[in-house]
Prior knowledge:
Blueprint: E1 3-10, H1 38-55, E2 57-64, H2 74-83, E3 88-91, H3 99-107, E4 110-116, H4 121-127, H5 132-145, E5 149-156, H6 164-173, E6 178-183, H7 197-213, E7 220-221, H8 227-234, E8 259-262, E9 267-269, E10 277-280, H9 286-291, H10 293-296, H11 320-327
Parallel strand pairs: 1-2, 1-8, 2-3, 3-4, 4-5, 5-6, 6-7
Antiparallel strand pairs: 8-9, 9-10
Helix pairs in contact: 6-7
Amino acid sequence: MEQYLAFQWHITDSCDQRCQHCYIFSEDNDIPIIEMSYEKMEHVLENCMDMCKKLNRIPYFYITGGDPILHKDFWTFMEMLKFHNVSFGLLGNPFHLNDEICKKLRYYGCDKYQLSIDGMRNNHDSIRKPGSFDTTIEKIKCIRNEGIKCVVMTTVSKINIAEIPQIIDLVAHHHVDIFAFARYCPTSLEKSTHIESNEYKELLEICWEKFKEYKDSGTTFNLKDHLWTLFLYEKGLFTIPEGLDDNKIYDGCNCANCHMTILPNGDVYACRRMESLIGNAFSESMQDIFLGEKMDKYRQYDKFEKCSKCELLRFCRGCPAVAYGYTHNAYAADPQCWKEI
């Protein structure tokens, strides 16, 4: 049976915003903008497709940036993806979307467009830029009207944790197709906006009740954060199946399992949310990178300081990127995991 392999592909650093939690600009807003050339994109696509063919994986591409639409060769790139019948979604900003653009995106094969809502109006606009909130809400309908699934993603931190229930109300009201949230990963040790583990568990409880309230709304609530597995396990809604291989990973963090990130300069990361350089797609085989020693570092599950002692190791593992953001050690305990080991 074929398994998916997801590529988060950053084709440009160009962006209309300078978000507080951005991995690209959070430390230095004057860094040079890097954009992958069309010729390099052809090479990278071939490299990824060749890898998936050899490993019997189904490729899926999350095309992002920056804002990918700002790439000077964006529409030519869309033609390339359509020619190769590539499955993909876009992660971008709302500012350049309209009915005509969304129609073109659907024609070229885009099946999902991910927007971000990081708080209610004042909070969201302070994190991103003035007017961003209203423009985002406006473009939800624009995306959905053309048959593209609208995904809304929220980055949770101490700054906006109290507003997450209101965001759930908002996305359900606007018929967003998929909603998920992930936790903020500090980009430097002094930039942590820490959430206590019991506070995060309480948020999951509140959100779970909200999800049940909106179960017939048409919005799918994606339990993206792997601590949802622990939450459901403690509520008796997730049980560990019997007869499984103790040495096999079945779920949880996709890092080094079925996900890779490619940056505009060709660098390949195990996970974009932490410093995890493992190779370069311009000069190396993606298959060699995926199966190589640098990637193996993120598959050494016995080194996880807390998770390796937990019965949920094969199904959860929290978020190594969040752990890295707090400690610069991906094997450290997830700072929001409330389970006592």
